[in-house]
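Handout, section B. The chain below has 428 residues.
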Amino acid sequence: MRKRILFTLCAVGILSGCGGEEISVVKLDHMPAQWDVRDMNSNSFETGPETWANDLLRACTDDPIPRIHEDVTVYHSYALNRKAMISDYDAHAYKLVTYVKGQQNYVICQDGFSPKMRVGLIEELPSFVQASKGVTIPTVPTIGVGTREHEERVKGSDYSDIFEVPVHLVDGTMIQVTPSLNGSITLTIGEDEGIFPLSIIEPYNAQMGVVTIALGYDEQSKEAYFFAESEGGLLSYDPIVTMTETDYFQPKQFEGLQVERVLQADSLEPGVETPLYTFSFMENGKRVTKDVRLTYTDGEFLTDESVGADIESNINVPSGPFVFVHKSPLDGKATIDYPNVLRAAGIDMSDLMDAIDEAEPVKRAGDVGAYSLLTIIDGWKGQEFQLSFKKRSKKVDVYLTDPTREQTFKLSSKGAETFFSYFPDLKE
């Protein structure tokens, strides 16, 4: 008899959990409308459509790959920026995504969570990645001697509207460097550390293509300069600086500088000092000779172990979820300021998230007020609800409607109390 009663109750839907599918309230997903997308290698940082954001938000969310062991073609880099700042420090406020192709398709990401770049595999490149915009780069930087014709062209060019000082190149010092994917190049003059124009190499820099570098010299100031010009439009003319005893880089004077280019290598191998020039100049009344060398270091990508270290180092930084109630969508038109947006009080959102997740599906919503929306943001994902209330004699019912599913949920009495404890302004 008991089994018959239970079967009847399940059949009419009076009991929950009798085989019916439970509806989850919280279903976080990517929210493209909350992001600005820009092509960082276009001439004007062209703004891309929101549809690109889905691919960019999904990028690098699987297990990281520690290395790329092949020559690759690097395509454009794309920047994601959250339109509304949701926290004083949000590790997921921006993401720089670069698409790369070798024997496999790769995606490389940088964000505020870790100083290291993260590499992931993808089945195919997104449709907005233009194959014609790719630049093929080697596994380690290549280096070679510049041509006499190129040197003469630079000497004959007028840079007065670009640089504050005239460009005076030293004959026979031009070199050409093709950067690798990820690494750094250290410059040393004798025992002194300096800064090379390509000191930091990142995937985003690949669009520079081949970089032509030469030495300049100013007889009056006795300062030497690095002239740098890339295929991608980079142009610079900066004084050579060296590290001082106080750990500060400052321009160094080279009185009576004479330079001999001694480059013999055709690539910069990791950890190997590569002779580039020999400097001869007056120092403390005597002529000295110092070797100028370059040392390349391979860059490290994020690994499973470094992910754990980053989590540990950021343990005291609020990482989400963040919960807001607001008057208009968080699409950049709204500012995360009172009274337009109310942020859930406190740091621990677990009780509020439990109250939301335990809400029950209902057929009707309440009355929509000034604060008509509730948004949950957790990492790269989020969820927006329509928020409504129903005032009763001794309590206020709280309703959340998910517009994508056209489903309304009602918080329990205890859940409503928890909700108002996080948003006390709404209880008034």
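Note. The two ends are 52 Å apart (CA to CA). Compare this with the example in section A.
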